Amino acid sequence: MKTLLALILLVPTLSFAQDTFEMSSRVVMRSESFKPIIRTLELSHLTSPDSFDGKYFKVVKGKSDEAISFNDEDEALVLRAATTYFHLNKAREWFIRELKSEYVQKLPKLTVRVDITNQFNELGHFANDKLDPQYNNALTIPAGKGIEGRGIKPWEMEIWFRPVKKVHIDELKIKNDGMGEWGGVLASFRKQMHMSTFQRFLAQLIQTQTSDSPTIMEQTFGWENLIRVAGTSIFLELAYQYADPLARAFSRKWFWLDSALVPEIIYHEYAHVALSDHLVLSHSSSVIEGMADFFAGQIADSPNLATKIKDYNTFNGKKATRKQQYQVEFETTDWANSDFVFGMLWDLNAIVGDEKSPQFVYSLREKINTSSTIRKQLIEGILKTCATDCASPFTDRVKILRRYNSRGI
Q1: Which of 39, 47, 157, 330 has its CA 20 to 30 A from that of 209?
Q2: Is residue 352 part of a domain?
Q3: 284 and 177 fall within a common domain
Q4: How many domains are there within the chain?
Q5: Is residue 273 one of the residues assigned to a domain?
């Protein structure tokens, strides 16, 4: 039987306009219930008739400068390229349509690298191939001047999506005889389960090898998609409460993540690009990660996801087992993967309003920077933004302070 990969087809629509055209391609999407599905959708703004090279994005493999061909023999690679290309255009259009971002409109074409294992080198672009290859994640890198004398050309901002690497549970070196291997994983993660980024909250999916040749959907979203909806942090909290039955249900041995096929990760990474006019990509911090998390949720625009966020976010979720109190460690780079700032920003919906909160948080970026702390600059920035953007500035700022005070800020 042919696998799902055999269904990946590209069909020209013959729609041309101003030296660009559209092609139909299979991409990974979310259904209305937030399930991962593959649909045939139009890829817009293409400038090449035979590759993923467009007006705003060019998708390449690894360190190559050549766009991935529509007819590449690696069908899984084509699906990754099509999915990232589609969702990046969607994210770009969202920032222009909803926030009228002139900065995004003027950005140069962005190179998108899939299946790249190199670390980033701020002087040389790519670290040596043999230096600690990277898998199962994604990142956005800042532009660089290169080194002319060594033949290293300048580069613009880029988004990198790592390839998949299956990790056996034995490599995690986590054991817990009381709950078995799966319980050991839960117990270990539970210590920091509220410290995961929105990327992890949505999409650092714990996978299992269900067959010798799993389909692309199984590879990306896991066995029966049970971990897909709520995300790692929330799922682990729920799983911990029901450890015994889940330990029997999840006799898992393998873990991995195909970040190029998860729409929310793609939105998160593009948000870093769109916010980089004020939040430069010098280093990772809780504030800039939380900002990117917020816009990833807005671009996703899923009622099902919004409900999960409202119920289970660890800042104030009604169904969260415990609400996370502020800790000074959140200000450090080691804790940049905290979902605390995301919860703070999402909570503004209740005060500012769902329709106004995206513009509110977008305006907030002008009052903070990459090095801003949560307790000082972020709080001050939110209050200053509220002074000009809230319907009832005095009352709303009091509400904000009360809500934040309840979380130990």
Answers
A1: 39
A2: yes
A3: no
A4: 3
A5: no
Question: Residue 304 domain-assigned?
Answer: yes
Residue 284 lies in a domain: yes
Query: What string of H, E and C letters represents the secondary structure of the chain?
Result: CCCHHHHCCEEEEEEEECCEEEEEEEEEEECCCCCEEEEEEEEEEECCCCECEECCEEEEECCCCCECECCCCCHHHHHHHHHHHHHHHHHHHHHHHHHCCHHHHHCCCEEEEECCCCCEECCCEECCCCCCCCCCCEEEECCECCEHHHCECCECCEEEECCCCCEEHHHHCCCCCCCHHHHHHHHHHHCCHHHCCHHHHHHCCCCCCCCCCCCHHHHHHCHHHCCCCCCHHHHHHHHHHCHHHHHHHCCCCEECCCHHHCHHHHHHHHHHHHCCCCCCCCCCCHHHHHHHHHHHHHHHCCHHHHHHHHHHCCCCCCCCCCCCCCCHHHHCHHHCCCCHHHHHHHHCHHHHCCCCHHHHHHHHHHHCCCCCCHHHHHHHHHHHHHHHHCCCHHHHHHHHHHHHHCCCC
Q: What is the pTM of this model?
A: 0.81
Enclosing domain of residue 31: 4-161
Residues 181 and 284 in one domain: no
- Each residue's pLDDT tens digit in the chain (409 positions)? 333 343 334 444 444 445 778 899 999 988 887 777 899 999 999 999 999 999 999 999 999 999 999 999 999 999 999 999 999 999 999 999 999 999 999 999 999 999 999 999 888 999 999 888 888 788 999 999 988 888 788 999 999 999 988 766 566 554 444 445 545 554 444 444 443 443 343 333 333 333 344 454 444 443 223 222 233 344 344 444 444 444 444 445 665 668 898 888 899 899 999 999 999 988 888 898 889 888 988 998 877 777 777 776 767 777 665 677 888 877 877 666 667 888 889 889 999 998 999 999 999 999 999 899 999 999 999 999 999 999 999 999 999 999 999 888 8
CA count, 13 A, side-chain hemisphere, 352: 26
What tokens appear for 276 in the block? 């980089």
